[in-house]
Amino acid sequence: MISKTNIALIALLFSSFGVFAQTTIELKVKQSIGSKAKLSRFVGKEIEVVDSCRSNEDGVYKFALPSNANQGLYRMVVGKQSSFDFIVANEPEIKFETIVFAVEDSLKVIVSKENKVFIEYSKLKRSSEQHLWMLGSLQNYYTPEQPFAEQLRNERQLVEFEFSQKSQELSRVDSSLFVSNYICLDTRPFVVGATSECSYKALLAKDWWNGVDLNDDRLLNTPLLIKNVWDYLENSICDDIYDKEQQDSVFVTQINVLLKMPMSERIRSQIVGSLCRGFIDTDYFGVLSYLLNNGGEAASILRNDNEFMARFILEKNLAVGNKSSDFKVKPLMGKSFKLSADKSKYKLVVFWSIWCPHCVEMMPSIISIYNDYKAKGFEIVAISIDEEVDQWKKFVADKQFPWINMQINADFDNPIIIKYNVDETPKMFLVDKNLKIVSRPSSAEQLKLKLKKLL
What we know:
Layout: H1 4-16, E1 22-30, E2 36-43, E3 46-54, E4 60-66, E5 72-78, E6 82-88, E7 93-99, E8 108-111, H2 113-139, H3 147-171, H4 178-186, H5 197-206, H6 225-234, H7 244-259, H8 265-279, H9 285-294, H10 300-303, H11 306-316, E9 328-329, E10 337-338, E11 346-352, H12 357-373, E12 378-384, H13 389-399, E13 404-407, H14 415-419, E14 427-432, E15 437-439, H15 444-454
Parallel strand pairs: 1-7, 11-12, 12-13
Antiparallel strand pairs: 1-4, 2-3, 2-5, 5-6, 7-8, 9-10, 11-14, 14-15
Helix pairs in contact: 2-3, 2-4, 3-4, 6-8, 7-9, 12-15
């Protein structure tokens, strides 16, 4: 026998999640020409078609979603090109009205609290983005020092501030609505008091998740959540401040802050899974180690990838603080060269190829760094893995690379290739005179920052 109390609790549970027999969606199009309409739902950034129909004689398109349909962001496409997004969440009836020649701009919400707020927010966002685009276009015609450029910057800041304020007001119309959470996730914090780009990013990251309820799995049915995770991490990138190891550490800190926030297991799993897929082919091994140790079941993406795990184990021996392997090779010029015989304070061992676009693009910056630090005890050992030796020799001669140049075969059984796990180019190791690895830069900027601190 079910008690009255239990019946009341069950009724409350069902009403909280808006479980209706179905959700009906209607769009009345004035001056309709009878085009077909398609209803689609968002699953992350992917869009899946749910249903399609033609209008009745009154120009009304009707759709019915079952009670177990995903709640979140949906899209309706009328005809070939006209479309608009809207929210399905805990409402049995959703009604819109519009004009055939301006479906999105003329859209009116007849029935739906969620979408009255959502459509108002969408129009506000579209208007602000258009205003900012025009200001940005004008800024291209002026140098930063010109008075009008300053005026444009001030106006841009005002537009951003007004958008932030109005968005917050809309998010507070009814905090029980899903659209409130959606708006909080979709809007960036308005930052004041930043003294540099990096301080601006730090302040942005600090307030990034304000007001966002990560326990709401419906966020997964929008294109926002995972995109926002990566945008959040982009705030950690400061090329003019962090060397490679610092950048790795900052990534870990930011990920740790995020994953310690209250969130549903589904959302946590999706976030960890996306991070694993995004970092798996990088050499940010601090991040990868953190995900392996703290990512739970979602980190099985890493653990079950045999190729990754083999690389991860090999790279542990090449971590900062470990001693790199010595080797002896005949360079392009001079006698045989032994790495340990060179007593420079610091040496960059870089594996590269003339067929690697990033390597070639990076070399002018590396030359500049070399010229700045050579006299302070810095040397470069550039090891080409090109098979076309003559082309490599010509390239080095044409570019006049001033450091120690050598070439080795990129065979799987080459001991240098094995010991340095050369699985990509460029691959760089900054070592001291005792061959201890002091940094694993991924870019010329990270190398320069490290040398600036060391020399």
